[in-house]
Amino acid sequence: MEGRLSLGMELTSEFGKKYRVHKMIGSGGQGEVYEVSTGNERYALKWYFKPSATVQQKQILEKLIENGSPTKNEKKDIFLWPQDLVYSANDLSFGYIMDLRERQFKGIVDLMKGRANPSFSALIRACFNLSKGFNKLHEQGFQYRDISFGNAFFDPKTGDVKICDNDNVTPNGYEEGGVKGTPRFMAPEIVRGESKPSRNTDRFSLAVLLFYMMMVSHPLDGAQEAKIKCMDPVAMERLYGRNPIFIFDPNNDLNRPVPGYHENAIIYWNIFPQSIKDLFIQSFTIGLNTPAKRVTEIQWMNALAKLEVGIMVCPYCGAKNFFDETKRKNEHVCWNRKCGRQIPVGSQLIIGKGSREVCIPINSETKLYSHQVNADFDIETVVGQVVINPKNSSQWGLRNLSNNNWNYNKPDGTQIVVDKGRAAVIRKNVKIDFGNEEGRFE
After folding, report:
1. What is the dihedral of CA 250, 255, 256, 258, to 10 degrees?
2. Domain range for 64
């Protein structure tokens, strides 16, 4: 693949570093991406076509480099953020340096086409991490402008994510810049030409992306889309801007998914619990035309963290299912069409109160993460794990894997300290004080 930069040529950065061009990785509407090196370190370079190498773009990049990645202080940096500006002695154009995307990261399109098959846990973590990344970006006063398939990548094994094309990021409310979004992901008010990108339009695009990832379908593609013979700009404006209807709108059934045509939406919608469905309903009903009432990243993160600890394994077919707090114990039925049997739900661990309350079904694979006991949005650090007594298979316990002691409170008022590495026996009406939160077994 040949590009506008010669292989082997040397470019100088604004910080005085020398980068050597090795190969072209890809190209897009704004420019080309190359693999480059400085010393023994390898990076990616996005080199702009001259029409895109504007003074305004350079100023945006300088601001982004000055601020640094929104997740630079996290355990894992989510963004492939601009790090340095690069120039050519013989060209008026420029580019920027970012980390290379590692090979294990796949595109969301790979998920849609079945080329990437993550577990439910990895998928939920990817959705959580994307929400976390955009939350950090918005907290720093920026808007992404173009959340879509092409800008998000995930590791199907771990759920780690990388967000790229961050050169389009601008301060929230910033109206300059040519990027308005990607078709099918843009908020209705942008499709209609009534608004510019903002934090609220980002939230609509994020909801579309999450719906795609969980339902493998578009939230507005139902009966109305199936009737369209030619998806031209007029049809797209009507479907996604003038008359958008959520395919599972509880009060409007005019755009339901068509069996045999929108099969993914029909299958996956019934797999997820009501807590996730409610957020999508909010996103694509009241959130369609009331930007201020769109689901926030924090709401997604809280719901997805609950989803992660609510995974249950069907004892009959091995399929992973989600616990639904709105259902009775005997109402959990395996989603696998070849099974469909009732999933037994036994003991549960209830942690927190009010909006912070989470109900965790106890099974042999149950793990407790830092977020559930510390409200820190850390769903990677395991602080507790269900174990089975090797001498008595009917006796289960919750092992303390945290750095803090737990207080185990029996119904009779007796209190036992559960040291790190020890297990608390799972019994009904027993309470555990984790430090920041209290839980009880039911």
Report:
1. 180
2. 10-98
